Amino acid sequence: MSETGSHENVSEKHLPKEQENGHGAVAVADDPFADPGMPPHEPRIQDIDERAAKRSERVVAMLFTTSMLATLGFIASFVLIPVDKYIYVWPAGNIGALNFALGTTLGVALFCIGAGAVHWARTLMSDHELVDERHAVSAEPETRTKVMEDFAQGAKESGLGRRSLIRKTMFGALTLLPLSGVVLLRDLGPLPEDKLEHTLWSKGKLLINENTHEPLRPEDISVGSLTFAWPEGLEEDDEEFQKEVAKAALMLVRLEPEDIKDKRELDWSHEGIVAYSKICTHVGCPVSLYEQQTHHVLCPCHQSTFDLADGARVIFGPAGHALPQLKISVNNDGFLEALGDFEEPVGPAYWERRA
Q1: For 24-51, what is each residue's pLDDT tens digit?
Q2: Contact 225, 253 (CB under 8 A)
Q3: Cβ atoms within 10 A of the Cβ of 312, count?
Q4: 156-183: string of b/e by CB count within 10 Å (b at 16+)?
C-alpha cells in the first residue's frame, strides 16, 4: 500500500458519516444523539368533552369521600374493637383484629387522598406545557407579581373554585384525617385517674422483708442498717407484681431518735425506725446506697442524695422533692405495720400532680 493511500484511509476515519435520505440527497449526521424534540401536544378527552370531565370529577370526589369514610372507620375500630381480639387473615394467620382494622382503614384513607389528588391533576388541572427560566433567589417586585398572577391562573385552571364537589370532599378528607392521630393518643395508656397517687400500702398492712419474705419486727433492723420491704399480700408471681412493687417499694433505716431532726419524721417512726419510699423522685430509679455516719442515701443513677435524718429532703442532685415517708407502728403481735399509704405520690413528678 502506498504512503498516500495510507493517509487517505486515516483521514476517512474522522470524516462525518454520510447517509442517503429518502429523496436521494446525502445528509451528514454530525450528532447521532440529536434531541428529537417534544412530541406534539395532544389534548386529553377531559379537555374536549365536558361529560368526561364530569366523570373524572366524580371519581376524584368518590376517592375523597372514601378517605373520609375510612377515617371514620379508623376511629370506630379504635373505640369498638377489643385489644385482645384476634382474627384469621390469610396468609398471615391469626393477627390482632384492632391492628388489622387500624392499618387497613388508615391506609385506605391516606391512599384515597393521594390517588384523588393525582387523578385530579392528571385529568382536570391545566395540561399546558410551560417553560419558565430560573431566576435569582431574591425576586424583583415584577417577578413576585408574576408569581401571584401565575398562582391565581393555576387556581383558576385547576377548577377548584368552579368544581365545588371536589373542593368540598377534598377539604372534608383533609379535615378528618388528622383525627386519626388524635385518637391514637389513647394508646399512650389508659387514663391514670388517681392510680399514680396510691400504692398497696394501707392501714394494718405488715412490712414484708424483701429478702426473707417474712414480716419484719423492730429487732430485725439494727442501727445503721438498710432494709427493703414491700406490703403484705404482694407476691412475686403476681401478674401485677412489677407494677405494684415499683410504687410500693420501701426502705427502712433505724436511726438514733436524737439524730432525727424533723419532728414529723420522728412522730411517723417507731423507735427510730423510719420508712421511706425506695423510688427516687428524679426518674424513678431504686435508691439503695446508704451512708451510716451522715444518714444520707444515694440514688446510683444520677447521684441524687437524700438526708434520712431530716425528712429525706434533697441535699444534692437533680431530684425535685424529698422521698415520701410511710407512717409505721407495731401491731399486737410485735410486727411492723403501716398506718396508711404514703401521704404524697411516690417517684418522679407528673403534670397532673396535686400541689
Answers
A1: 444 455 556 666 667 777 888 988 999 9
A2: yes
A3: 26
A4: eebbbeebeebbebbebbeebbeebeeb
With contact defined as beta carbons under 8 Å apart, do 229 and 214 qualify? no
Residues contacting 159, CB < 8 A, separation 6+:
124, 125, 166
The vertex-49 CA angle with 45 and 54, nearest 5°, equals 95
Domain locations in the chain as residue ranges: 45-129+141-188, 195-338
Residue 275 burial (C-beta neighbours within 10 Å; 0-12, 13-18, 19+): buried
Nearest to 342 by CA among 276, 289, 296, 294: 276
Give the orientation angle of helix 50-80 with respect to helix 164-176, to 10 degrees.
20
pLDDT at site 5: 46
Note whether 106 and 70 are within 8 A (CB): yes
11 — pLDDT class (breaks 50, 70, 90):
very low
3-state class (DSSP) for residue 165: helix
Q: Is the pLDDT of residue 224 over 60?
A: yes
* Residue carrying the nine cell digits 435508691: 287
pLDDT of residue 10: 42
Q: What is the mean pLDDT of the chain?
A: 84
Q: Are 189 and 243 in contact (CB under 8 A)?
A: no
Q: Which residues contact 146 (CB under 8 A, 6 or more apart)?
A: none
Q: 15 pLDDT band (50/70/90 cuts)?
A: very low
Give the pLDDT confidence of 290-328 residue by residue, as tens digits. 998 899 999 999 999 999 999 999 999 999 889 999 999
Q: 195-338, superfamily in CATH? A: Rieske [2Fe-2S] iron-sulphur domain (2.102.10.10)
